[in-house]
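Fold this complex.
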Amino acid sequence: MSSELTTLSATAASAKVKSGEVDPGELFEQWLERSRLDDLNALSWSADSVPAEIHADGPLGGVPLGVKDLFCTIGVPSQSGSKILEGYLPPYSATVVDALTAAGAPLLAKTHQDEFAMGSSNENCAFGPVLNPWDRGRVPGGSSGGSAAAVAAGLVPWALGTDTGGSIRQPAALCGVVGLKPTYGSVSRYGMIAFASSLDQAGPITNSVADAALLYSQMTGRDSHDSTSVDHPDPVTQVAAADLSGVRIGVPTELSGEGIEPGVLEAFNASLELAKSLGATVEPCHLPHAPHALSAYYLIAPAECSSNLARFDGVRYGLRVDPGEGLDAMYGATRSQGFGPEVRRRIMLGTYALSSGYYDAYYGRAQRVRTLISQDFDTAFESFDVIATPTSPCVAFELGSKTADPLSMYLSDFCTVPMSLAGIPAISIPNGLSEGLPVGLQLVGPAFSENRILGIAASLEAAIGFDGSAARL
Amino acid sequence: MIDRSEVLHIARLARLSLEETEIEAITAELSSILDHVDQISSLDLEGVEPTAHSVAQSGALRPDVTMESLAKDAVLSQAPATDGSGFEVPSPGGGS
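Structure:
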């Protein structure tokens, strides 16, 4: 039996299992050994043995899966990066985790994240920061930093993340892997520990566009447990690299100039030239309200978070701190000691934005801005097939460099937040290096255009020819 | 932008007990964030409908039938305090 199974791509490994060439138990065993190499604090839990049942005849062929901490996994710690849920063992699993297990992706490991998915660096994790495998003095991005670092370092073959304002795409960019934020509603949110319900969406973090397409193909569909989930009108099956001739790529001037690091911009422009050489047309476009997206997002997301996180009250699950002064004092003490500073800050911000006298000025206005942002995209997609931007305005930054100023951290989401507000799909693919660190290219399409953006991403991926092997442990 | 008394009021609404030493810092942080997000007050939003949700769908209903729910024991097993039949909490009136 080969000892090199973990160097195969997830797609290749799945094909070899299905053809009978590779034993799924042996594949799992080898990945278990890889997962034990974690010295990045990427993993919050890993399996102790090969599962009794691996649905290797399913479409995913038995290739094991890394899952972000915030997905409920029955009997396995699901803590959402928070002390308030330390050791929580859910009595049920998220719909998408069950679907992937049944499709042949058994649970290998859980991955660390920013607390309740609030953060862009993984430094808000109650269980310590995740390190970037490209440079251990730097952050992996966030909030799905553990999943991105684990995939980049080869600790897991592929992983699930979630994206509320960039939490799949930004860490994928900073770790040199592929991250897809699907159309809102295409993947059930049931069993995802909620941050901002109108924005949260699960998606794949992988080493290639083909792997992302394969994993996503088994994630979609309406779920009776999530009333916002819908059947995908154009389900992803197998993605082939698209012919770029005649493909119209729009580059929003608002998201591709000011505020972007020169090295990131250089890599971005080089890939646009590549796209042109493959026959695409590349022209500037406008998303006039995109510069206001961050403001709208940092009102809407905290507002929803303040409501969602009201459930953590020391009664039904998780931490209880009881000073012995009655119920109300127990609530206050539990929540103050259980939540970290960023989560407390966002709960405060959201409570303020929703409070009497401020609701219309903040939350109400933010929801109207959200409408304008969606309309900007609708207009742009009348003239363009896909929109391209840098994923993150900067490469991975040094640990501790942005923690003192919450606002500077929020600006990391500048290029990813508008798509989240509009609910449309966006993928980040590796776009070379700047100063020896990975850069991401973001491709965005209209709602339910995953097939289109995955096809275009696959062509550009091949043309860019990124080599991420330096990050492998 | 936001003052100490508002911060204390918001903390009370959110059931967060702030340490005296935290109050000044959080007041400054919230003020700085609110200054930034206040950019949207410059936009003309007359006649623009609010978007609560990006999926244009309403009334996703299922048949009104009883379905299996989680086992009580499994749920109570994660509670900080239980008497075996329900969740135990401190007295609402004060004292435990």
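Residues 1-39 of chain B form a domain with the Histone, subunit A fold (CATH 1.10.20).
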